[in-house]
């Protein structure tokens, strides 16, 4: 059976932020495809491709240098031509984000969080839902305080519970990642402080993040750091 759907966003938009305590607020948009399978299926038609477009926002809170929290939410639009499934819904998630410096402008950054997504038709007869634990580690070059950072690494999904009910409610299938890992990469440009040397934290930034593997896609974002 061939299905289409996905988790709209998992990793934080950027792996690290300005040092010390602070807040960052972002808006983002993009699209992703997840490569899934039916766990009990036997044969050549067991793969499922979940595809979304999304518009959302994220808030990050720096608690101290190298450690913070993040949370995000999005409106999700899902269209499945093969199963005649068109639905809207939501996605949200969040977790912990940390950074380990290796050199002046090099570090290891990581995250661990929980993600949830739900889409459904108007009468809830057809719907798709997902919960998963999400994490990753990247090697970062540069720093937000210096105006640029780029990163490359891997994301992983150690646990997930996903299902979809389609064809007017006639079929419900469980889904799982075909390969629960992905390559991740991205970059972020950060402005100089907006209000001079007496306020070093208020800045604007823009970036692009991408993944290839379990999830494949691109997400663009704009952020206010404070």
What portion of residues is helical? under 10%
Q: What's the story with the biggest beta sheet?
A: 11 strands, antiparallel
Radius of gyration: 18 Å
Structural class: mainly beta
Element string (H = helix, E = strand): EEEEEEEEEEE
Low-confidence stretches: 1-6
Mean pLDDT: 87
Outline, from the CA principal axes? elongated
The percentage of residues in β strands lies in over 45%
**Number of extended strands:** 11
Number of helices: 0
Termini gap: 48 Å
Q: Would you kindly provide a brief summary of this structure?
A:
With 226 residues, the protein is mostly beta strands.
SSE blueprint and pairings:
Elements: E1 22-37, E2 47-64, E3 67-80, E4 85-103, E5 106-120, E6 127-143, E7 148-166, E8 171-177, E9 181-190, E10 203-213, E11 215-225
Antiparallel strand pairs: 1-2, 1-8, 1-11, 2-3, 3-4, 4-5, 5-6, 6-7, 7-8, 7-9, 9-10, 10-11
Q: Can you describe this structure?
A:
This protein has strands spanning 22-37, 47-64, 67-80, 85-103, 106-120, 127-143, 148-166, 171-177, 181-190, 203-213, 215-225. It has 226 residues and is mainly beta. A hairpin with a 4-residue loop joins strand 6 (127-143) and strand 7 (148-166). The radius of gyration is 18 Å and the shape is elongated. The N and C termini lie far apart (48 Å).
